[in-house]
Specification:
13 helices; 10 strands; binds guanosine-5'-triphosphate; binds magnesium ion
């Protein structure tokens, strides 16, 4: 969460709204809200208040119940926040209803993630992919966007006929833009495909994982690359490929966009070509931030997303990172032996991966062992590919 002293750095204040099933445990609610606040912060919003509601199923009209919405409205009368961020996706009509009630700009989870991607896209490929995903998100919501604009202009009352006409023109323009972006992406994909073909002979390893797990830090540590690694969500949106040589055996290693809970489908779709690097890899190194209490959920999200992009059956090296920041259980046996602890931990995951490792990329703990494990897997793979080569 944001340090209160830092609030002035942010251009906008926001409130967060999240609903949970009746059975959701407190720690999970806290974790999901922390993640949402972190997403908001990455997009440039400081959270001043969170509202949660436990309900069986979201309200079809306003997502949260009537009473909760009124509570939010009253809070907004007293406090300066121009945006309200929901942790889930809202239907176009839910978003419209909520905006009408609150008279504020409403973000749902997809729009928030899209906004972050838009802010952070640097290369032509990433920019085109995000723009495509954004237009696809906007298309069914054009009426909402007009309401936004009218509110900004301070217009009141119902919209006149000209608004409807302009929405129709916008719709046509956006459709044309989507077609153009798709064509541009096809061209970019073709170039990338040619590049990847040139690499097809090499053994390829891809770093994958939940956003902020430490993939880029590991990439930099292993390959001396210079990928931006920072404490922000989605610091990386492109794939970076580096050549490495371990024990005289060359291979390629790539770092790419991280995954997150409820990643908008349009983004997964449009980032498919960035994720080709993952799909075509011989080995995936799955980096997990073990210091995050929700690391198990994160592992599941990553596995599910990998399956969704067609990379669900690749050999995996499971690497638990950030052991320096891990909170050991308070009821642990005394005297506490960390080595035994991790050995037991490993057993839980042994069947899920080719190997399970525990490292700290920050403190360089167990990195030699990590390199050795990669070397032996790469060697094994080379032997299978080139059985007559002398090792
Ligand atoms: N305490 C601790 N922090 C780490 C470690 N490894 C990485 N970090 C920090 O975790 C944050 C995220 O690291 P990145 O390498 O950018 O993570 P990423 O997985 O590439 O994240 P995205 O590109 O945003 O998906 C940074 O602030 C790192 O300094 C570690 O071993 N211990
Ligand atoms: Mg990264």
């Amino acid at each position: 969460m944001t340090d209160k002293k830092d609030l002035t750095f942010y251009k906008d204040k926001t409130i967060l709204v999240s609903v949970y099933g009746n059975q959701t445990p407190e720690w999970r609610m806290k974790d999901e809200l922390d993640e949402l606040a972190f997403l908001a912060e990455t997009a440039g919003y400081a959270t001043i208040k969170t509202f949660t509601q436990k309900i069986q199923r979201p309200d079809s009209r306003t997502f949260v119940g009537k009473g909760k919405l009124e509570e939010i409205r009253l809070f907004l009368e007293e406090h300066p926040a121009e945006t309200v961020i929901f942790d889930d996706d809202l239907s176009p009509s839910q978003m419209r209803n909520i905006e009408n009630e609150l008279k504020k700009t409403v973000y749902d989870r997809s729009l928030l993630i899209l906004t972050i991607f838009l802010l952070r896209a640097k290369t032509a490929q990433a920019k085109t992919q995000v723009e495509l995903a954004r237009y696809e998100y906007l298309l069914p919501r054009l009426t909402n966007m007009w309401t936004h604009l009218e509110r900004q202009r301070g217009a009141t009352g119902t919209r006149g006929g000209s608004g409807e006409k302009e929405i129709e023109t916008d719709r046509r323009n956006i459709k044309a833009r989507i077609t153009l972006l798709k064509e541009q992406l096809l061209k970019i994909d073709k170039q990338a495909q040619t590049q990847r073909k040139a690499r097809a002979e090499s053994i390829r390893i891809s770093l994958v994982g939940y956003t902020n797990a430490g993939k880029s830090t590991v990439m930099n540590l292993l390959s001396k690359a210079d990928v931006l690694a920072e404490n922000k969500l989605f610091a990386t949106l492109d794939s970076t490929v580096r050549k490495m040589v371990l024990d005289n055996i060359p291979f390629l290693i790539s770092d790419t966009v991280g995954f997150i809970r409820k990643l908008p489908h349009s983004l997964v779709e449009s980032f498919k070509s960035t994720l080709d690097e993952v799909r075509e890899a011989d080995l995936l190194i799955h980096i997990v931030d073990v210091s995050n209490p929700a690391y198990e959920d994160h592992i599941n999200v990553v596995n599910k997303t990998l399956a969704e992009i067609g990379a669900g059956d690749k050999p995996i090296l499971l690497v638990f990172n950030k052991i320096d920041a891990y909170h050991y259980p308070e009821d642990a046996e005394q005297p506490f032996d960390a080595a035994v602890f991790w050995e037991n931990f490993k057993k839980t995951y042994a069947s899920h991966a080719k190997a399970v490792l525990f490292i700290s990329a920050k403190d360089h703990t167990n990195i030699t062992h990590f390199r050795e494990t990669i070397t032996s897997i790469v060697k094994e793979r080379y032997k299978a590919l080139y059985p007559n080569y002398l090792y």
